[in-house]
Amino acid sequence: MVAILKILSPGILASLQDEGRQGYAGFGVPRSGAADSQSLQLGNALVGNAPFEAAIEFRFLGPKVVAAGGKMRLGLAGDVTAEHKRADSGDSISIKPWQSVTLDEGDVLSVDPLKNGATGYLTVEGGFDLVPVLDSYSTYARAKLGGVNGLPLQAGDTIKVRLPQPRDGLEKIVADSFSTTTQTIRVLAGPQDDYFSKNVIEKFTGEHYKVSSDVDRMGIRLEGPELEPLPEKGSDLISDGIVPGAIQVPGSGQPIILFVDCQTIGGYPKIGAVITSDLPLLGQLMPGTEIRFQLVSLEEAQAARKVRKSELERAISSIQDYFGEGVMDLKALYEVNLIDGVVDAGLSGHFPGHLEGGINEKN
Amino acid sequence: MDIRVLTLGDSAFTIEFPKLKGAIGARSVRALRGSIEQEVEEGRLPGVFDIISASRSLTVCLNPDLADYNQVTERVSVLAQMPLDAKGVNKELWILPACYEGEFAPDLDEVAQRSGLSVAEIIDIHSSTAYDIFLIGFLPGFAFMGELDARLQFPRRTSPRVRVPAGSVGIANEQTAVYPWESPGGWHLLARCPVPFFNNTWTQPSLLSAGGSVKFKPVTIEEYNDIKADLSAERIAPQSFLSREGES
Q1: Which residues of B touch A274 (CB under 8 A)?
Q2: Which pLDDT score is estimated for B21?
Q3: Which residues of chain A have a pLDDT value below 50?
Q4: What does A226-254 look like in DSSP terms, one character per residue?
Q5: pLDDT by residue for chain B (248 residues), tens digit each?
Q6: Min CA distance, A287 vs chain B (Å)?
Q7: For B52, which of A133, A143, A241 is closest by C-beta distance?
Q8: Are residues B131 and B223 in the same domain?
Q9: Are residues B77 and B100 in the same domain?
Q10: Which residues contact A214 (CB under 8 A, 6 or more apart)?
Q11: Is B69 on the interface with A (CB under 8 A)?
């Protein structure tokens, strides 16, 4: 028996992504990979996968999928909700953000439109059974690399799951997830900060920039005070290397944050580059959001990376069994009683069969 | 040699030879790339996972969890200031068919008008130089080559085309290139080349590599179609257009 996930509707820009393609920039191949690598890692932890197992990334509007064959467990990552329609009973169950859900054959999962972020993931326990291209499953459509046939997911696409069926065990939920939204993006100055006067750099960090509607995996265009280069420098330079997070300032003076699918070299001056710890936040920027840039040092960037890492570790360690809406967490309840050493007979949980209600009333 | 080290976030930096350009710049960048790659291979630069060559600079990408940014920067700066190793210079010469006719050459007339040359002269000038491959970048397999004859040098088109077909041979400023993929683009298009430039199943996914050279050989539309058919039926391999082999 093979478990197969079928795309009924891809939503907007759904594609398979993992950690991205490393080591091929010298051939002009963009890095690609998850727009929010932190959410991808937590979503994979939710279903017991390695951190960068390939998952379905969706932007703004989620996909609708069906378990076309077999049974599989999916993880819903990001500030995203979904509806699980059961084939046997016809019941619809609401799925919370950061929750796993098991689809029986014929069950449909419809991801709701995203409200609080731009990017979500569907991870699958055991991972998808795909062929890596240049060491990665990430989709880069322009050169038809990775994913399913090198393209974003389309209605009717089917993807095999490596596990014939989920391992035993309860559904999981992340009890204490991290925030994926932000107003402040931290930046290291350079490589061409010398193209701008001190006043312009102050404008860059002092004023707000609005995320325009032109946001995709290649770049995030911003609107705000114009950043004019020094007249003797201009806006044209001999092209040099670019990486996701670099903030380039073309002739219009409106900055563009280059993102995961960006080309490998570019000819506009780059005033700064977003630090590694804040790259996942870029994947969640919604059009219309006001952001501010803050210049930091290399040491501060390193410290921020450690904080981000411990945040992810804390979220992963908060993953716990999930019994469903309104059902009590038995294990937690027993632990509480064990630690207290006293059994509160007044607590409905003391009597099996009377679990529901009691604690909820107390809460 | 003069170098500048430029910060590109906390997981990359660019090392620039500010005084170099053209073929000499490309050669220096290639030599430095070789010595960095060797250090990486020998395990002396842990965490370095990507190197991007540009025409007079090189960008080193590192995983900050595995690499010490300052140590890598220092080591690469030392390498950049060492005398360039002439060994392993790429002597590859590719002779690539190019059809300078009809719909394959949408900007030929305009370039003729602006340069005051005849169409035949432009084809002759463009196809008589063996161009140095400066770098591969922008798109997978896209080779920046030069230098173009001064008579053919014009800035990019003021409004870029939304769709440049794959295989288009373009010129802009002192460079020429072939678009390996359909993409937007602002170069003046003179011809079409039937050869594929990138395939992820090749050992080296990009047909061309920096430091080699390319000469275009004019072909008729009929010849172009034949070559294209032979390539897609795998009767000939793209590698068969290599007329002089690599390293020496």
Answers
A1: 9
A2: 79
A3: 338-363
A4: --PPPTTT-S----EE--TTEEE--TT--
A5: 789 999 999 999 999 999 887 778 888 898 999 999 999 999 999 999 999 999 899 999 999 999 999 999 999 999 999 887 655 567 799 999 999 999 999 999 999 999 999 999 999 999 999 999 988 988 899 999 999 999 999 988 877 788 999 999 999 989 999 999 998 888 999 999 999 999 999 988 999 988 889 999 999 999 999 999 999 999 999 999 999 876 54
A6: 24
A7: A241
A8: yes
A9: no
A10: A220, A221
A11: yes
Answer yes or no: do B116 and B227 share one domain: yes
The residue of chain B nearest to residue A304, with distances taken between CA atoms, is: B10
Query: Which residues neighbour A300 within 8 Å (Cβ) at sequence distance 6 or greater?
Result: A186, A275
- Cβ of A243 within 8 Å of Cβ of B9? The answer is yes
Instruction: Give the mutation candidate from A19, A24, A29, A130 for the B interface (greatest B CB count, under 10 A).
Output: A29
Co-location of B186 and B217 in the same domain: yes
Burial class (CB in 10 A: 0-12, 13-18, 19+), B38: middle
Domain segments of chain A as ranges: 4-174, 184-298, 326-362
User: A265: which chain B residues are within 8 Å (Cβ-Cβ)?
Assistant: 52, 54, 135, 137-138
Please tell me what DSSP assigns to residue B206.
B
Q: What are A92's strand-pairing partners?
A: A85
The interface pTM score, or ipTM, of the predicted complex is: 0.87
Q: Which of B30, B55, B81 is the last residue of a domain?
A: B81
Task: State whether B138 and A28 contact (CB < 8 Å).
Answer: yes
> For residue B104, how many C-alpha atoms fall within 13 Å in the half-sphere facing its CB?
22
- Burial (CB < 10 A; 0-12, 13-18, 19+), residue A338, is exposed
pLDDT score at B87? 52
CATH of the domain at B35: 3.30.1360.40
CB contact B30 to A (< 8 Å): no
Those residues with Cβ within 8 angstroms of residue B113's Cβ, 6 or more apart along the chain or in another chain? none
Q: Report residue B89: phi and psi, to 5°.
A: -70, 135
CATH number of A184-298: 2.40.100.10
Distances (CA, A) of B37 to A135, B52, B168: 19, 12, 32
Out of B8, B53, B137, the one facing A190 most closely (by C-beta) is B8
Domain assignment present for B149: yes
**Chain A contact set for B12 (CB, 8 A):** 241, 243, 273
Domain span holding position B61: 4-81
State the best of A149, A265, A277, A297 to mutate against chain B, taking most chain B CBs within 10 Å.
Answer: A265
Instruction: Give the model's pLDDT for residue B85.
Output: 62
Shared domain for B38 and B146, answered yes or no, is: no
Q: For chain A, say whether B1 makes contact (Cβ under 8 Å).
A: no
Same domain, B147 and B236: yes
Which pLDDT belongs to residue A334?
A: 56
Are residues A28 and B142, on separate chains, in Cβ contact within 8 Å? yes
Do B20 and B137 lie in one domain? The reply is no
- Asked if residue B87 is part of any domain, the answer here is no
- Dist CA A190 CA A80 (whole Å): 35
